[in-house]
Amino acid sequence: MVKNIYDYLSSINVFLFILINIFILLAVMLFMNGFMDVFNITDIEFSEGPNVNKTDVYDIFLSILIVPLIETLIFQKFIFWICCKIGLINKLWVVILLSSILFASTHFYSVGYIICGILAGAIFMSAYILRRGKQPLLTVLSIHSLFNLIVLLLSIFNIYGDS
Predict the structure, then answer these.
(1) I need a surface site. Which of 56, 77, 134, 163 has the fewest CB within 10 A?
(2) Which of 126, 146, 17 is nearest to 79 (CA)?
């Protein structure tokens, strides 16, 4: 079954692939928030989260293009390249786990944020692996940028996050 899913996802149109991954990311985010609300779990904050001025074009540009580009280059392209060089490419779960933990370590704002960061990092690296030979960098950058844009819009309209 996993092989069938892998084959399907690695062969579909890039736009559908991006939409599926955005849907998965949003579902993960909503599930985590819902889970914490239902069980009345208070998130433990370590530092203030990203503070994007929602009216500053520069901040918006950074959060939906520059930061995702840098993170995709580091946590997918570079990590994948290193794993290929040291022979870990045959253990894709190790590559995904390593990438997701490192990705989450740069999103160390709260326990909930770290968990979402690990899951998002795993989704991004999985997408990178699935799109090998089919513009993986551009695909993951698109997923990451669109996700950040959606979260920013939800925050602007007070649907999610701080106002």
Answers:
(1) 163
(2) 126
How confident is the model at residue 51, as a pLDDT? 63
pLDDT, average across residues 38-52:
67
- 113, 91 Cβ separation under 8 angstroms: no
Instruction: Give the chain's largest Cα–Cα span.
Output: 46
The DSSP line for 103-148 is HHHT-TTBHHHHHHHHHHHHHHHHHHHHTTTS-HHHHHHHHHHHHH
Query: Residue 43 gets which letter from DSSP?
Result: P
Contacts of 77 (CB under 8 A, 6+ apart): 128, 136, 137
Whole-prediction pTM: 0.86
Q: What is the mean pLDDT of residues 49-62?
A: 72
Tell me the three state secondary structure of residue 50.
Answer: coil
C-alpha span between 149 and 65 (Å, rounded) = 9
Tell me the pLDDT tens digit for each residue of 84-138.
Answer: 999 988 889 999 999 999 999 998 777 888 888 999 999 999 999 999 999 999 9
Start-to-end CA span in the chain (Å): 42
